[in-house]
Every structure is written in structure tokens, then in C-alpha cells.
Amino acid sequence: MPIRYAIALLATLFCTAALAEVHEVKMLNRGASGPMVYEPDYLAIAPGDTVKFIATQPSHNAASLPGFLPDGAEPFKGRINEEVEVKFDVPGFYGIQCIPHLAMGMVMLIQVGDSPVSEAQIPASLPTRARQRFEQIVERVSSAY
After folding, report:
1. 97: closest CA among 122, 73, 71, 72?
2. Which residues belong to the annotated binding site?
3. CA distance 97 to 105
């Protein structure tokens, strides 16, 4: 009997891993919504999913925004021109920035789990353009539901 339980546990673990998705985000100098953007600029993903930030055009990185992470989430920081994959396990809202282009509003929002996007707490201390982009993302996503 114990071997059956071990096999069932292993099967459950492999099934969970198989259900996790990898989402791709491009880092761009210019995209459909303007200059200095991530495409897409918003993702709603499940806990355990991975986001692959693709260095599509030069001079960009992807990094978590201090003060815009769920409690218990690990911050991350990719290098300039580096493709980076990040697994998001902790439910909540993650503000993502391109460090050299934060003031130009190069940000994106990742929602992990099912909380309404209207609950995202955008830090008031962000540069104006970054804060405005986050507000636009939240408004656009909220009005779509």
C-alpha cells in the first residue's frame, strides 16, 4: 500500500507541473501602444505560472518594483538585454519595471490569482508616467469585466 501512495503523490506533482503555463512578454522600444513598452502590459496568471521576459529590442530589462509586490513574494531583477524567466507563486499584484525606462512609463502589471484588478495598490511614489500607465492598465482591465 505505501508504494501506491508514493506513486499517487508523484503523479499529482507531475500533473500540477504540467498545468503551469509559460507566458511570454516582449520588451520593446516601440510597440502598438507607444514607446518603451512591455507587450503585453498586463497578464492575469495562475500561481505557479512562469513569465518569460524576452529581450526583443536592446537596452531593456525586467525587474520587480519595490513596494509593488505581494507580501512574501521574492523580488527579481534581470540584467539589461537579458532574457529572464520568473515563476510567480504568491498570489497578488506585481509591478514590473524596466529600470532605465521607469520614468518613461515602461511598466507592466501581473495579476497572480483571482483578486479583482481594482484591488491593485499602485504606489503614489512612482514617477508620473509610470503611475499613469499603471492606472490606465487597471482602468482598461476593469472596464473589460
Report:
1. 122
2. 60, 98, 101, 106
3. 8
Q: pLDDT digits over 27-85, tens only?
A: 999 998 889 999 999 999 999 999 999 999 999 999 999 999 999 999 999 999 999 99
Residue ranges of the annotated binding site for Cu cation are: 60, 98, 101, 106
HEC profile of the chain: CHHHHHHHHHHHHHHHHHHCCEEEEEEEEEECCEEEEEECCEEEECCCEEEEEECCCCCCCCEECCCCCCCCCCCCECCCCCCEEEEECCCEEEEEECHHHCCCCCEEEEEECCCCHHHCCCCCCCCHHHHHHHHHHHHHHHHCC
The CATH code belonging to domain 22-143 is: 2.60.40.420
Is-contact 62 81, C-beta < 8 A?
A: no
